[in-house]
Recover the amino acids of this structure.
């Protein structure tokens, strides 16, 4: 019988050679344990699909089958199949070794490098690519072909030519020359910010120390052709443009969550004296809720300096407000540095907090769907697709509406309005609220609102063109739409008008759109009269804290085309500034005892208004009021009440200073502080761990959000250039 055997030692390199096979015959045990034939035969190896040799051996068992002898047979077969030694005496037995050819200069054949000052190059190149084809198919060359588009025209053609000097290095007399390190360092200093602005690493093959040489090593200037064409003045102007840091130039395009956070942090880096970014938490999918703050003393509350906040993108598909707040952050930084007196006065006397996106998860869904609708080639069906896409992404990743997720304190106030001495301020959060579905985004914003003494706030939405104010929930028994003013109705109308009147078109009757047209007056409307809802953020601000918040609807198109962003910024720029300046209307001051110590928790009341403000640390308070005459009082448990008449002229644009000194009542009994104790019971069942755990689980997932330019490279089919990712 014959045994066929394949063995890995027979390599495909010996396909055309022969394998020496020794035919072995086993004699009878007891006579000759093993008799090997002296004859040698040569059997040509047949190459299999896996590149191994196929060997045949003759096996003739007699009477006794011995496993040990079988093993010996296999070892003999394996050993005889080793690669043959080279015998020069046998013709054709030895394959002559190929001598490695020395690289030589060759023509530059890459189109994006055709304008270099030289015409010959050499492979392997400085990046290790062995051939022109390998270079042309690499991510490095692909980057050079799209870098102008990625960087918005900045640093071109410097980056491309610098990359070409590495991928197709200059060749002279069959020697590859390295480009000069000094040129690389100069370009990097001017252009690194352009890469940072799009969240891209500086390319590894432009490492000035690794791929470039000093002048003493005989380097060459890869930009010499470019320098010869440029006038000195033109080059200086380009240099100034390239040196511009990220976050300084507004780009009227939609920004991803990664781009948005990058712009905010770049703005902080450019204006560190007045700007600071901080996180208030994470969304359900682990995305950061990033805030940027502006103040002449960022990170610290200053006595008698009001705190203002702007929040946008609460509904993920309502996106214009998100973009406006990004632009506002860039604008405040840039104008402050340029010495704009109005901006400097605003920032130096106000602490401004900007949260561009409260619902980044919803935005991701809405943006991807909107992009799909825009890519559709069906003009007849595009409008329908656009309408369908307008509602996708509204809710958060739990499919909950964040503007219905806050505690419904308005119903509590309505139920108590016939009780003597009922309050409409600092209403505690009922315990039952914590057993419902409280989103991480809502939880983070509530903690934020309670931790900072905000005075004024606006939340930006889309779908109408109007400013609405509390109450949002109707007092109608069946919650039907009905005018439901809060105690500070006059103040809220004044604040809403401050935004609407400063807006270019909002207060005009012919500019109205949406369902508010039947109820609004000069661009303002009572929320419950227009559309009654419970659990809104603006009602929570008013009833739970000292903060007065309005809701700004920026237009009927929730996701307007990018070409309308510039117009949207121009229409709202003045209104954004005027509303923040309104935080300085009314009065402010300190409530003290006779020894000059501030009294925390004092009640600031206004005659005819059933809503009090509570003093904070050091007895400080802010009370927004309309122009006119007001009777204001201050009281605190264990102290006598003090009253003052205040006159606020229309022409005064800053808050009047009104301090109170309260006299201690001798032997005063401790007052019932059960209301404040209930107010301080925030998250009594420690739901915080559950909310943060939900966000942390998603943030730990290997769902790394890629920047917008990533698709340029993954669609090419080659290896993904992870070396370009900053957070890989």
């Amino acid at each position: 019988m014959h045994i066929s055997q394949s063995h890995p030692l027979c390599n495909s390199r010996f396909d055309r050679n022969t394998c020496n096979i020794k035919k072995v015959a086993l004699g009878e045990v007891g006579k000759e344990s093993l008799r090997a034939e002296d004859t040698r035969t040569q059997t040509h190896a047949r190459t299999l699909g896996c590149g191994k040799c196929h060997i045949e051996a003759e096996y003739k068992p007699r009477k006794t089958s011995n496993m040990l002898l079988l093993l010996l047979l296999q070892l003999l077969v394996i050993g005889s199949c080793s690669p043959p030694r080279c015998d020069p005496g046998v013709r054709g037995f030895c394959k002559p070794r190929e001598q490695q050819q020395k690289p030589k200069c060759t023509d530059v054949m890459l189109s994006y490098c055709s304008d270099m000052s030289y015409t010959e190059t050499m492979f392997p190149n400085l990046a290790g690519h062995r051939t022109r084809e390998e270079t042309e198919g690499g991510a490095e060359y692909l980057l050079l072909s799209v870098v102008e588009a990625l960087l918005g025209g900045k640093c071109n053609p410097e980056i491309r030519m610098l990359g070409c000097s590495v991928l197709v290095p200059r060749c002279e007399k069959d020697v590859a020359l390295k480009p000069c390190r000094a040129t690389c360092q100069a370009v990097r200093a001017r252009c690194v910010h352009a890469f940072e602005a799009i969240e891209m690493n500086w390319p590894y093959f432009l490492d000035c120390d690794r791929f470039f040489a000093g002048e003493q090593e005989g380097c060459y200037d890869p930009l010499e052709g470019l320098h010869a064409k440029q006038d000195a003045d033109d080059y200086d102007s380009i240099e100034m443009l390239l040196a511009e840091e990220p976050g300084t130039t507004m780009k009227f395009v939609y920004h991803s969550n990664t781009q948005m956070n990058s712009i905010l942090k770049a703005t902080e880096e450019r204006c560190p004296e007045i700007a600071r970014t901080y996180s208030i938490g994470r969304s359900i999918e682990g995305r950061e809720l990033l805030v940027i703050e502006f103040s002449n003393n960022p990170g610290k509350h200053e006595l008698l300096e009001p705190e203002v906040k702007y929040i946008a993108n609460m509904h993920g598909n309502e996106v214009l407000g998100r973009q406006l707040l990004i632009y506002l952050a860039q604008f405040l930084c840039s104008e402050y540095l340029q010495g704009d007196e109005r901006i400097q006065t605003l920032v130096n006397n106000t602490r401004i907090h900007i949260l561009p996106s409260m619902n980044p998860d919803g935005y991701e869904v809405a943006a991807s769907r909107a992009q799909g609708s825009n890519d559709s080639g069906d003009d007849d069906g595009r409008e329908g697709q656009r309408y369908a896409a307008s509602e996708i992404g509204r809710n958060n990743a739990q499919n909950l509406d964040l503007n219905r997720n806050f505690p419904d304190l308005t119903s509590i106030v309505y139920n108590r309005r016939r009780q003597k001495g009922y309050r409409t301020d600092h209403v505690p959060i009922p315990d039952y609220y914590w057993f419902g579905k409280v989103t991480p985004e809502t939880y983070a914003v509530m903690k934020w609102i309670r931790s900072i003494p905000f005075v004024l706030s606006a939340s930006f939405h889309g779908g109408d063109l109007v400013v609405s104010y509390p109450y949002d929930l109707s007092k109608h028994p069946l919650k039907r739409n009905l005018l439901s003013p809060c105690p500070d109705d006059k103040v809220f109308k004044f604040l809403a008008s401050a935004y609407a009147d400063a807006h270019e078109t909002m207060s005009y009757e012919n500019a109205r759109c949406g369902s508010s047209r039947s109820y609004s007056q000069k661009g303002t409307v009572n929320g419950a009269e227009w559309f009654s809802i419970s659990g809104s953020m603006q009602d929570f601000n008013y009833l739970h804290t000292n903060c007065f918040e309005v809701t700004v609807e920026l237009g009927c198109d929730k996701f307007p085309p990018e070409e309308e962003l510039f117009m949207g910024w121009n229409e709202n720029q003045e209104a954004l500034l005027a509303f923040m300046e309104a935080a300085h209307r009314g009065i402010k001051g300190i409530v003290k005892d006779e020894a000059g110590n501030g009294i925390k928790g004092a009640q600031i009341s206004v005659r005819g208004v059933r809503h009090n403000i509570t003093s904070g640390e050091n007895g400080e308070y802010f009370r927004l009021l309309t122009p006119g005459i007001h009777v204001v009082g201050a009281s605190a448990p264990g102290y006598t009440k003090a009253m003052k008449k205040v006159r606020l002229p229309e022409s005064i644009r800053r808050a009047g200073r009104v301090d109170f000194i309260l006299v201690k009542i001798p032997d005063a009994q401790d007052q019932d502080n059960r209301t404040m104790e209930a107010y301080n019971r925030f998250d009594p069942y420690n739901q915080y761990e559950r909310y943060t755990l939900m966000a942390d689980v998603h943030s730990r997932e290997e769902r790394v959000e890629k920047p917008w330019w990533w698709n340029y490279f993954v669609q090419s089919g080659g290896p993904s250039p992870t070396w370009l990712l900053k957070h890989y």
Remarks:
- The two ends are 61 Å apart (CA to CA).
- The chain is about 30% helix and 15% strand.
